[in-house]
């Protein structure tokens, strides 16, 4: 296998391990938000922001921890036969089934990008052109010009009405990291089949 593949696997593993180890502490943020929600309902006026904030924190916890979970092999699997197979058979099956995972994650990323573009006020049919022009405007004319290129920012329909683009962008980032980690797992399985990775 080319050295660049080994470098890719190491770099993606290190990045997703770092992000996943930080993301796992979001569970304490979630606990704090829910504790405040319970306390404010009993002792004070109930806060409008707590349940939606808890949902947003849970999204971050889930999607940023997903690539690390894939890396550790702790994702949920149907293990009727898999556990009894040899490492080589597992590598064959994993190398084949990761193609389905990559297809699913690609469709999910596309949908996330379309939804994020919508939340930034783009209602057309070409979200990639929108993002490219937005980045181009930001780099050439600055942040204020890029801000003017945005449309009506989508808000949640709840009483608190937070903007939705941050959580939708976080979902896109998490899915993109899962794609990178899945590719690293694919290359690792190919290395196992060729006998260059244990």
UniProtKB/TrEMBL annotation:
Function of the protein: Part of the tripartite ATP-independent periplasmic (TRAP) transport system.
Q: Which Pfam families match?
A: DctQ
Transmembrane regions = 18-37, 49-70, 91-113, 163-184
- InterPro entries, sorted: DctQ, TRAP_DctQ
List the PANTHER family. 2,3-DIKETO-L-GULONATE TRAP TRANSPORTER SMALL PERMEASE PROTEIN YIAM, SLL1102 PROTEIN
The entry's protein name is TRAP transporter small permease protein
Give the similarity note: Belongs to the TRAP transporter small permease family.
Tell me what organism the protein belongs to: Halomonas aestuarii
- Highest taxon of source: Bacteria
| Tripartite ATP-independent periplasmic transporters DctQ component domain location | 31-115
Membrane topology recorded in Swiss-Prot or TrEMBL: Multi-pass membrane protein
Does the UniProt entry include the keyword ATP-binding? Answer: no
Q: Which GO terms describe its cellular component?
A: plasma membrane
Summary of subunit composition and partner proteins: The complex comprises the extracytoplasmic solute receptor protein and the two transmembrane proteins.
The subcellular localization recorded is: Cell inner membrane
Chief place of localization: membrane
What GO molecular function annotations does the UniProt record carry, in alphabetical order? transmembrane transporter activity
Q: Which UniProt keywords apply?
A: Cell inner membrane, Cell membrane, Membrane, Transmembrane, Transmembrane helix, Transport
């Amino acid at each position: 296998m080319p050295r660049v593949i080994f470098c890719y696997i190491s770099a993606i593993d290190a990045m997703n391990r770092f992000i996943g180890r930080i993301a796992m502490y979001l569970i304490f943020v979630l606990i704090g938000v829910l504790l405040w929600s319970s306390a404010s309902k009993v002792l004070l006026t109930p806060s409008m922001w707590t349940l939606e904030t808890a949902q947003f924190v849970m999204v971050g916890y889930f999607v940023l921890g997903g690539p690390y979970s894939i890396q550790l092999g702790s994702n949920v699997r149907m293990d009727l036969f898999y556990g009894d197979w040899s490492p080589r058979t597992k590598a064959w099956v994993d190398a084949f089934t990761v193609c389905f995972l990559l297809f699913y994650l690609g469709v999910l990323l596309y949908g996330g990008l379309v939804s994020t573009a919508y939340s930034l006020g783009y209602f057309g049919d070409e979200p990639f052109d929108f993002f490219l022009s937005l980045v181009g405007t930001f780099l050439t004319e600055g942040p204020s010009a890029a801000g003017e290129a945005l449309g009506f920012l989508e808000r949640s329909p709840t009483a608190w009405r937070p903007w939705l683009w941050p959580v939708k962008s976080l979902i896109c980032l998490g899915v993109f990291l899962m794609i990178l980690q899945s590719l690293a797992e694919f290359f690792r399985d190919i290395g196992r089949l060729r006998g260059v990775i244990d």
